[in-house]
Design goal:
Blueprint (H helix, E strand, L loop, with lengths): L1 H4 L5 H17 L2 H4 L4 H17 L8 H8 L4 H17 L24
Length: 115
């Protein structure tokens, strides 16, 4: 939709459109449904690859170079970052459910008289 309907494809405008219209849909609830299969990761990453190619300054660049040029990271890196943030929040009881509900670790000592 952005590629068809936007005539003024200045880099800053395109980045704002992507970050406000596309990326929220791709990243919605990634902590809950994070993809595990390489095929699914590639399908999601293809959305960002396609967007990067829409920007005139990045058409002839390799994907990785274009990301550096645009100051973006891969969607997989963003998902990993979101997972780490959520784990930190769980561990510090800043979110529900608390981290203790997920761990089976028990801090108990073994009796000394067992040989």
């Amino acid at each position: 939709m952005i590629g068809r309907n936007i005539n003024y494809k200045e880099t800053n405008v395109m980045l704002r459109l992507y970050k406000s219209l596309v990326r929220p849909h791709v990243e919605y609830c990634t902590v809950s449904w994070s993809v595990h299969y390489a095929k699914d990761k590639q399908l999601l990453e293809r959305i960002q690859r396609r967007f990067v190619k829409m920007i005139q300054a990045c058409k002839d660049l390799k994907y990785e170079d274009a990301l550096v040029n645009l100051r973006l990271v891969t969607l997989e890196e963003r998902r990993n970052h979101a997972d780490l943030i959520f784990l930190f929040k769980m561990y510090n009881s800043l979110t529900q459910p608390p981290f203790d509900n997920f761990s089976n670790y028990r801090n108990t000592k073994a009796p000394d008289d067992i040989h």
